[in-house]
Amino acid sequence: MSETIDIHAPGVEVKKSCCYFCHQNCGVLAYVKDGKVLKIEGDPSHPTNQGGLCTRGNIALLHLDHPDRINYPLKRAGEKGSNQWERISWDQAISEIAEKLNQIKAESGAEAVATAGGTLRTEDWARRRFMNMFGSPNGFHNALLCWIPTFMVETAVSGWSPFETDLADSRCVILWGFNPGASGMPSMRGYSDLKKNGLKIIVVDPRYSETAAHADLWLPLRPGSDTALALAMIHVVIYEGLANMEFVNNWCIGYEELAQHVAQYSPEWAAEHTWLEPELIRQAARIYAKSSPSNIQWGCTADQLGKTAGAGMHARAVLRAITGNLDCPGGDLMPGPAMNYVTDEELEANEWLPEEQKAKQIGADKFKLCSWPGYQLISDICKETWGKAPTAEWMCEAHGPSVFKAILTGDPYQIRALLVSATNPVNSYGDAKMTLEALKRVEFMVTCEYWMTPAALYSDYVMPIAGALERPTIHNNYGVTDSLLASQRAIQPLYERKTDYEFWRLLALASGQDEDQWPWETLEEVFYYVTYSFTSLGYQFNSYDEFVEKYRFYYPPLHYYKYGNNGFCTPSRRVELKSSILEELGYPSLPTWIGPAENEIDDPELAEEYPLVLTTGGGFMPYHHSEQFNISPLRFLRHDPYFTINPIKAKELHIKDGDWCWIETRRGRMKQRANVEPSVHEKVIYAQRGWWYPENGPEGDAPYGCLESNVNMLSSVDDEHCDPIGGSWANRGLLCKVYKVKYGDEPDIQFSIPGSSKVPGVTVMPSDQRLAYELIPYNPLPTFEVPEGLTWDKGTKIAWDLERGLAYDPDSGWLYDPETSVFFDLETRFAYDPETETLVDEAGTHYDMTTKQPLGDITPAVADVEGGE
Amino acid sequence: MTRYAMVMDQRRCIGCQSCTVACRTWNDLPMDIMFNPVVSEGVQGVYPNVHQVFTPLICMHCDNPPCTICCPTNASQQDEDGIVWVDSTKCMGCKVCVNACPYGARDVSALDPFLKSFVRKCDFCKDRVREGEQPYCVATCHQKARIFGDLDDPNSEVSKLVGGLAVTTIFPELGTEPQVYYIPDLGGAK
């Protein structure tokens, strides 16, 4: 019988830790005695989960001391991938890694060292700090598939991403490609509660998801066609007169052009692309616009649509603005950077990275918004506005797939070292075959991991990293919100595990960086530094642990209409429906339709061979990304990967429930089992993400079964399929076919660049690959002659009289005051008086319109007083 | 008097199976024992007019439990507050109660030779409940789809729900008088 554990026994401490198995970071109470965690449970007083814990949260103790965990630094002892290791000390590992990195830097430049990150499992500002001081711009994450391009597009349009939904006062929320029922348990509870109180929920999802089941209105669109839906909704709002014209007139620029531009995107037009009835689109737009204050909740879908993604983000940003739902009670709030604590960006030391190194960032020449060119524009305005900028780690990164391609091709230059932290790129980045080959071929690789993943297997060094209960955590939404949630360590790391922060710090010191730049030895010291300024707000604590125990979180009071003071944080201080930042970077300045990466309308021939539409990348319980496939109580719930197919299509293809089938796109094929269910359209296939088989062992060309059921065999990272704006690659809306697995079918492991090439290997060099559309050369020069004495501002595209704050109207040749709308004569700067149809100077003297001579007799009283002049 | 009961709000259950895993880790259950599975017939209907209902199962802690009457050693027993539990020191693993329970709520593990020797079942986390806490599956449910409390207390949430809503029970025709109630979900998206 299992021994009874008494969590109330004397000597048992309660530590306020957190769950670390998705981004919610739910509060966890850990009962600790003698450095051992006895039990964990959800923290009832935590604002996020209020005591709840999902499947993933509940396995924390199994994760903590799982027999497969990596507990000591490992050095490769045999061939790459042979799984032969020598246990070494941290000191030896760090000094050898530092030496090798310095050697590569000396021979090939710092940019030859790249780092890959995973989801929020790490202190990534520390990785950035290391890379900035080392001199390489080539850090990256899977950021481009998860919120980051959305954040940057929305920030370009409205000055900060309006991601904080103020649901308590809201009347309608659109959950757009977002399924909290399988990926955000605490939010799902919130939606159920609010729905009971009358909140209208509109769900946009091609699949009848756990969340769609709770919707008031469900829009089951064709996967990948979200952008068409958003454009059609703008059309309805504008042409049915549902726009909030007060907000638009006062705070938006580009509305007229937008209205003309979206005239073409009627619901009837969208019907063909989205497979939705025009009336359903109208209904959704009307509910959203008329229920104001209402919200659009971001979902991962936005960032996984490939080339159509950027326009969709822009369209949703526009939709919020023209309905007046920005930063108002019940609307989508824009918190801005944290003013009351140290932000991640301030810890990143971005000023250390020299300009010439920024220019070498891989992918920045093609995908400009989420790399240095776009980030620089946005961060400059933010710093001007707040003195603080969004996090650069995440928001300003190399293009991950392009780095893998650079490893294989040496184009634009050879990447020689890859430092991998908290990610299993074969399963989480697009084009798995190509990624796996890059991991096999890279000259030098170090992986910071919990488990022996395929990436770790091909590494030269594998470092043991502390997990959930072994490290303190601050949750602050990637460093771009003004609140924070704090958690403490339950216990010190077991065995020889260290936090990833300590890894980067030790590596920094060993590779010659100044100890003064890394003054904090532990994460607690960093976090004390981060939160220290709360003491000036009346919080009383002398250490980070004390802050957690006493306060646990910091939520500043909500401020609405923050733009009222200085306008929005954009070049024109208005919401730029027509975005000058996107225009400056060479992208369409208004949201412009481009079809999903592969679709039956643009490419009917392809659709004949691949008649079905694939959607993937969505979360499903109990896994998170490619994690937890080796945790038995979770694997027990879902042992095998399943794809969903409509019963009508399944019957047509002779597929029965549970059959193993190949799903194939132009780029490859992988197998999953059939879940025959009417939750998707007849032409849609929904496949599960993340699958690998840790139990299959490290043998073979594709160890741990990492390609067998891996949905990234099907996704595309070819430049022509990526979104030119943000660089997102395509997981959703791809064309595929499905057929049953037969005896003797060969696995698919040959990589090619581009992925759709029939010839294995590299057939087109990355720099010769085309983008989905040509960038539009940005011409910041005025289209009219700027009169003498005026200054041309390329941001607002207005010639200004800076002295008086007057703008020049090239059509009439007059100057005007944008705030009072009073016109002024260009030559004399006299104001126009519409009552008398004369000019009048500051002293009140009237002048003739054409001769500019004083007119004494029109207003005698004034003329008398001023007559002496 | 106290009479513990549970209400499952199927309108809120999303089938995440957190309760299943939480129970397993909290009670250190072997892999072949599951106190509270969540079952569903899958998505029903014709796309896009479909719906899905999840049913969390658990020991019903019946008012008239067949599993205690049949126990030859009195190991399977019911306390005054309605909690049905098995005293592992008395149980000899004969499995009569396993066959008697119409809800499949109890079993013997085949995995561990030691665990084979007695029947395991949900006891409403009686150690927690009698300390004034919620059963762990209730505490862990993010969706607040499980409501636990004292049916004899007219102010408790369970007695209000059971008294005020159209609740159902499973196999009421058997006369076991199950004390786990269900608020049915009548459909999905409109």
| Named CATH topology of the largest domain in chain A | Rossmann fold
Helix percentage range of chain B: 10-25%
Q: Return Rg of chain A in Å.
A: 29 Å
Task: Output the CATH class name of the largest domain in chain A.
Answer: Alpha Beta
Hey, roughly how much beta strand do the residues of chain B contain?
15-25%
Helix content of chain A: 25-40%
Major sheet summary line of chain B: 3 strands, mixed
Cα Rg of chain B: 17 Å
What's the SSE blueprint?
The complex is a heterodimer of chains A (869) and B (190).
Chain A: E1 13-18, E2 27-33, E3 36-42, H1 60-64, E4 74-76, E5 85-87, H2 90-108, E6 113-117, H3 124-134, E7 139-140, H4 148-158, E8 164-165, E9 172-176, H5 180-183, H6 185-196, E10 200-204, E11 217-219, H7 226-239, H8 245-251, E12 252-253, H9 255-262, H10 267-274, H11 278-290, E13 294-297, H12 309-322, E14 332-333, H13 344-347, H14 355-358, H15 372-386, H16 392-395, H17 400-409, E15 417-421, H18 425-428, H19 432-441, E16 444-449, H20 454-457, E17 461-464, E18 473-475, E19 484-487, H21 500-510, H22 523-531, H23 544-550, E20 553-554, H24 563-566, E21 575-576, H25 580-585, H26 604-609, E22 612-615, H27 632-635, E23 642-645, H28 647-652, E24 660-665, E25 668-676, E26 684-687, E27 734-740, E28 752-753, E29 761-762, E30 791-793, E31 798-801, E32 806-809, E33 814-816, E34 823-824, E35 831-833, E36 838-840, E37 846-847, H29 860-866
Parallel strand pairs in A: 6-7, 6-15, 9-10, 9-13, 10-11, 12-21, 15-16, 16-17, 22-26, 23-25, 28-29
Antiparallel strand pairs in A: 1-2, 2-3, 4-5, 4-17, 8-14, 18-19, 19-20, 22-27, 23-26, 24-25, 24-27, 30-31, 31-32, 32-33, 33-34, 35-36, 36-37
Helix pairs in contact in A: 2-21, 3-21, 4-12, 7-10, 7-11, 7-12, 10-11, 17-19
Chain B: E1 4-9, H1 18-26, E2 38-40, E3 44-46, E4 49-51, E5 54-56, H2 66-69, E6 76-78, E7 84-86, H3 96-100, E8 106-107, E9 120-121, H4 126-129, H5 136-140, E10 146-150, H6 157-164, E11 180-183
Parallel strand pairs in B: 1-11
Antiparallel strand pairs in B: 1-10, 2-5, 3-4, 6-7, 8-9
